[in-house]
Design a protein that fits this description.
497 residues; Rossmann fold; 8-stranded antiparallel β-sheet; Dna Ligase, domain 1; 24% strand
Length: 497
């Protein structure tokens, strides 16, 4: 087993990986940019080394800097987390060339699955249902107008090398096709350096259901059931759950078997996710393969009672999977909500500043994967996700009640967050009913919190801060001042959620 593993990431995922490494007796080595010098992932690691620079482009995205640190400090393996270099085939190949284990799939698999055209062809050839469309790169509308008409409008123009909604346009009619393609190509070129696009049939109100897969180097491939990821904002997931309310036992088995079949078709090893869209008739179609550990992996860990990071390490070390398909069971119901430093009342504008008070909810069956604590700085340099709140219940109803309670008792002061917005989503009648699709937030009005909708937990926390300050702050005359550190009297830019 590895002795020293470097985590090429930051924030909550770096903390999460560190915890498993240390539990396994492996030295956890972190890297950090200058704005993260006091970050939680740095404090909790066994060793930490500076990536000189401020922005992600100068630090966490610099393969050369990370490899140099790994070679200098005798690193056995690198865990990329998610984002940054996690799906960078060049980085995976660099690790391989320098004798460092990359904790993820092979560089070839990352390359092929990162190209949506190759992925769709491979899956189609393997018998996996794919969305009807043109699975070749298209350059101009005139050459494909007849073919698109046969597919039937509306259609989507999508970037071949893309994701996250970039380079994607909805086309309602033939008159819109040329402009949509040109716009998608420009955006794809800017975002990915690749202007290839393709056409897919638009599916109205689909669900986004993904299957967690795992493969080892001994030929074993399993799935660890589904995660429903239909609650999205700007094509980014914000709430995930398992089981999905849309899946019958038969459909779950079919989708699981299709995901395993897909993994075998590409020779997949380590953790990954096969993503599907599910239409209103119950037909599923291949969307893409995410060649990394997902943000929402704790949902699967809760319902299967498996440590996916530990399994990643074992597989990367050449060991067989610690579980097989028959031993995996889906128990209870889990929900995850992503906590962001952003302002729902200002079109979700990111919020920056110092977290002056951080109290996550603590109770049985509640897990908080966090990258921040009281005193942490939230800067403009990186993604504004602060933490992930995950709950488990014996039933979906119990899980929803627990999530509502946990959101009401999650206190973050100093930056504005989306906590109350998430609670409004969780408590929406359509969400409670399980009537979900990827346009849920467009269809349903989910009111952001008003300024006078401050939860009791925040008021209690403010009072606590004020009380604590009376024991810590002394004024110039030598007497204690109970008000001088009160957040209510601070002249700073903090807001209660």
């Amino acid at each position: 087993m590895f002795r020293r593993v470097l985590i090429a990431n930051r924030g909550e995922i770096a903390v999460r990986v560190t915890q498993t490494l240390q539990q396994m007796g492996i030295t956890a080595v972190s890297v950090y940019a200058q704005p993260d010098r006091n970050a939680m992932h740095v404090r909790q690691a066994d060793e930490a080394y500076l990536l000189d620079g401020m922005s992600a482009a100068d630090t966490y995205l610099r393969s050369d800097k990370i490899i140099d640190i790994a070679k200098t400090h005798n690193i056995d393996a690198i865990h990329p987390g998610y984002g940054f270099l996690s799906e960078n085939a060049t980085f995976a190949k660099m690790c391989q060339d320098d004798g460092i284990s990359f904790i993820g799939p092979s560089a070839d698999v990352i390359t092929n699955m990162g190209d949506k055209l190759i992925a769709k062809k491979v899956m189609g050839d393997a018998g996996i249902p794919v969305v009807p469309g043109l699975t070749v790169s298209v350059k101009d509308a005139a050459s494909i107008s007849k073919d698109v008409a046969k597919i039937g409008y509306p259609v989507l123009v999508k970037a071949a090398a893309g994701g996250g909604g970039k380079g994607m346009r909805l086309v309602a009619s033939e008159t819109d096709l040329a402009d949509a393609m040109a716009a998608a190509q420009r955006e794809a070129k800017s975002a990915f350096g690749d202007d290839r696009v393709f056409i897919e049939k638009y599916i109205d109100k689909p669900r986004h259901v993904e299957i967690q897969i795992f493969g080892d180097t001994h030929g074993h491939v399993v799935h660890l059931f589904e995660r429903e990821c239909s609650i999205q904002r700007r094509h980014q997931k914000i709430i995930e759950e398992s089981p999905s309310t849309a899946l019958t036992p038969k459909l779950r088995q079919q989708m699981g078997e299709a995901a395993v079949q897909a993994a075998k078709a590409i020779g997949y090893t380590n953790a990954g996710t096969v993503e599907f869209i599910l239409d209103q008739a119950g037909q599923f179609y291949f969307l893409e393969v995410n060649t990394r550990l997902q943000v929402e992996h704790p949902v699967t860990e809760f319902i299967t009672q498996q440590d996916l990071v530990q399994a990643q390490l074992l597989v990367a070390d050449g060991q067989p999977l610690p579980f097989n398909q028959d031993s995996l069971k889906q128990t209870g119901h889990a929900l995850e909500a992503r906590i962001y430093a952003e302002d729902p009342q200002r079109n979700f504008l990111p919020s920056t500043g110092t977290i002056i008070h951080y109290v996550p909810p603590a109770a049985p069956y509640i897990r908080v994967d966090s990258g921040v604590s009281t005193g942490s700085e939230v800067t403009v340099h990186y993604d504004p996700m602060l933490a992930k709140l995950i709950v488990w219940g014996a039933t979906r109803e119990e899980s929803l009640r627990r999530m509502t309670w946990a959101l009401r008792h999650f206190v973050i002061m100093g930056v504005t967050t989306n906590i109350e917005f998430l609670r409004h989503v969780i408590e929406h009648p359509a969400f409670i009913k399980g009537d979900l699709h990827t346009h849920f937030l467009d269809e349903h009005e989910v009111s952001p919190p008003s300024d006078d909708d401050t939860p009791d937990a925040v008021l209690i926390a403010a009072a606590y801060c004020s009380k604590q300050s009376s024991h810590q702050v002394t004024n110039v005359s030598g007497s204690q001042n109970a008000e001088s550190n009160s957040p209510w009297l601070s002249g700073g830019s903090w807001r209660a959620f």
